[in-house]
Amino acid sequence: MFASRYVLLTAVLLVLGAGCTPLALRDTGERSGASAPVYDLPQDAPEAAVEPPPPPVREAPEEISENRATRTLLAQADQLEAKGELEASAAALERALRIEPRNARLWHRLAAVRLAQGQNKQAASFAAKSNSLAGKDSELITRNNQLIREARGY
Amino acid sequence: MISRLRDLFRTWYLRIKYGDSRLPVWARWGMLAGALLLVALTIYTVYLDFIVRARFEGVRWAIPARVYARPLELYPGKKLPMGELLSELRLLGYSKIAQPDRAGSYYQRDNVVDLTTRPFQFWDGAEPQASVRLSFGDDVLEEISGRGDGSAVELVRLDPAIVGSIYPAHNEDRLLLQLKEVPQLLIDALLVIEDQHFYQHWGIRPQSMLRAIWTNLRAGSAVAGGSTLTQQLVKNFYLSNARTLRRKFNEAIMSLLVEFHYQKDEILEAYMNEIFLGQDGHRSINGFGLASQFYFQKNLQELQPAEIALLVALVKGASYYDPRRHPDRAKQRRDLVLSELEKAGKLDKEAMRSAQRASLGVMSTARSGVTEFPAFIDLVRRQLRRDYKEADLTSQGLQIHTTLDPLIQLRSENAVADTLNALEKQRRIAAGKLQAAAVVTSVDGGELLAVVGDRNPRFAGFNRVIDALRPIGSLIKPVIFLTALERPERYTLATPLDDTAFQYTMQDGQVWEPKNYDKEEHGAVPLYRALANSYNLSTAKLGLDLGVGTVIDTLRRMGIDRQVAPYPSLFLGAAALSPIEVAQIYHTFANNGFRVDLRAIRAVLTADGDPVQRYPLSMQQVFEPGASYLINYALQEVVRDGTAKYLPNIIGQEMTVAGKTGTSDDLRDSWFAGFTGDRMAVTWVGNDDNMPVGLTGASGAMVVWGHIMQAMDTQPLLLTPPDDVETAWIDGETFLRGGPSCQQALELPFIKGSEPKEAAPCGEGVLNKTLDLFRGIFN
After folding, report:
1. Is A37 in CB contact (< 8 Å) with chain B?
2. For residue B228, is it within any domain?
3. Nearest CB to A92 within list B1, B77, B124
4. Which of B255, B474, B628, B699 is catalytic?
5. A58-67, pLDDT tens digit by residue?
6. For chain B, what is the mean pLDDT?
7. Which residues are CB-contacts of B229 (< 8 A; sequence separation ≥ 6)?
8. Domains observed in chain A
9. Alpha helix locations (H) across B162-304?
10. Same domain (yes/no): B668, B605
11. Predicted ipTM?
12. Number of domains in chain B
């Protein structure tokens, strides 16, 4: 039957037409990976390496703050630091600083994390900031000054 | 492929011409024409196919970046009046129900709030859903306990409020959903009402189309739809709404193509994200995720049957059934959807009845999209542009976590509007004439908490916070005085400055002859009083002594990159800066000489909640603690007994602050900048056309500033002197070393060793001489 041939032709043409355009649906998960934009992440460039520092004095959360929420975040920061997740640790400390912005020991803690990350300029700044809030706490001031010396490489 | 086609054609051509002699020639040529038509049709189909796929792949995912406010942190002991928590919950669209067990609900009775939070993905990880009981004392959140076991909870973070989006030019908006996030009832309702055979048909249902045509013919106009979900989706790919035959034909073919390319669930997911469900000004509301926010300010998963039914009702005609403008129509259609659901067995009778009794539950004003805080969003957008491509911002659905505190923002807006209204009344200025800008930051973190760019803060026009460049008047003076105080061997707070008229001939021969605001000369005044009273003559002389370049250098260190003209007029504030730049300067004072580049953004996440980038706190010490302390002491003196001494009447005597008034020539600009212990704010009042407003810094901007600070919870400023600062008594007449016995004695801080050595006649006189005598004897 010639009529069936026309049907065949239509089908062939349709298949050919569609065949030129490959199936290309990706699911959501794939998509975010496949077409994720390229971002230039500005980062604090690590500065010149310094002498291996003496083991830092790590205060327990209870010594740093009276505030239970701050302590929770400090414990979190400690855990993250122990796992080597330093930026996340810094983020937890920043969160704690929003709760207690005038806590000199918190600022010192953040300085220590930045130093461990090799962000020496920031480390020295935060230690100086800690000093500016330390009042008469000479023990903390000594530790801050030591950290600043380390950060500056002398 | 081309050659295969050619062979095919040749074969057929030969057959038509020579073969099949049973047919007449015209029939053979007719067949050829038919074949060619088919080819043309195929090419057209390929073209449509291209459009379909482009739309399906492209537009489906173009989502504007979503901007979030700071999340509210809850912990025992936090200073937080219960009313503030309730405002935040309203902002977040939490529903008040007696058993607040589902995410995004709360119940308040007396001083206790029961609450179930929404889980949320932050930069630092997932904040799980928490069901807690909050007990409030006077302005303090006293206790948090788990509602399950009553255990003490230390810290809960609420989900952040959405405060805006970053749109591309065409203003389409959606909140991307995956099918698995869509409540089953919504899918059921959609299929029952719009397309019962969705999972069976091939994209079109000829029976329904024919029935629709028949109905329409009988009615004389197009009343019935008969479109499948696939057809509706395809229809939504077009921007216009024309109902032509050609369009119908195109839609049918495109529907078949969509079904050919994609799975049913993918089509349904695309439909859920694409369908038009409302209009908000220039912005179209696409998809159920955004519609849920737009109408109910809730996540889709939180919707109740009545609300789901209303959204499905809107599919038929989002403007005809607009629940805000036509609530009766909307309710009727919603109830119809509910009873259809019951008939189909997707909802039991009891649930249907109670849903039909429910009110529409639509938020009176849309909160989610076009931002209420255009000035802040504008700032965020500009900060993001440094690091991201515009196309990524408007299409990748990035989540932008910002520092905005919506409660402080709303209060600052009110303070600006109320004060301007009062000033206009009081000073007989035409109502609505004055304009204003305000910036509020945190002190230690340098976070932008609130930004007001217009007295009508919803108006997304000229953003004065960034774009209004106005002479800053006396706001420049502390920069000069700080430059001086950095040189303790030459200047202390007690150094007498010469406040007498003078002429200064500049390099181009022009003569500069500054005047005091009160047109008087004040003779010798101690440095800190010259600042407190904002004397021009002594300041100008001090500036000339230090040099224009030195002062500009101080500005640079504070983070001001803008070029300022290096003329002596700089000393009296001829330089024009924007409020945000002034905020940068005063933040460095507030932060004791540590410069923080003011931040509006904390972190950026992908649409799926994966961290992309964090904007960490970073600071740099640009001034010594001693000099910073001295300048802040002097800025406190401005409020204690200087040009801003009226301020405590607004904010209360116990709220100690430091600040400075600023007024430009002919009273065109009124400025105030200052800080408490934890908040810094800058305010500006003026006219857009730069005409005089007749307000000094103290009578205009300072009043706005006072009302902003008064409206928020803030700590008094308590300066702690650094190690190298000590206080000494000074004789107020000679500015030499005095003692409490001097008649005009005053105690001032000095950097160690910089206090005046020479004793005033009245001073420590008697006692000291005696002591010296003893020392002499014993040495």
Report:
1. yes
2. yes
3. B124
4. B474
5. 788 888 888 9
6. 88
7. B190, B191, B194, B195, B198, B267, B268, B271
8. 61-152 (1.25.40.10)
9. 184-194, 206-219, 229-237, 245-261, 264-274, 288-296
10. yes
11. 0.77
12. 5
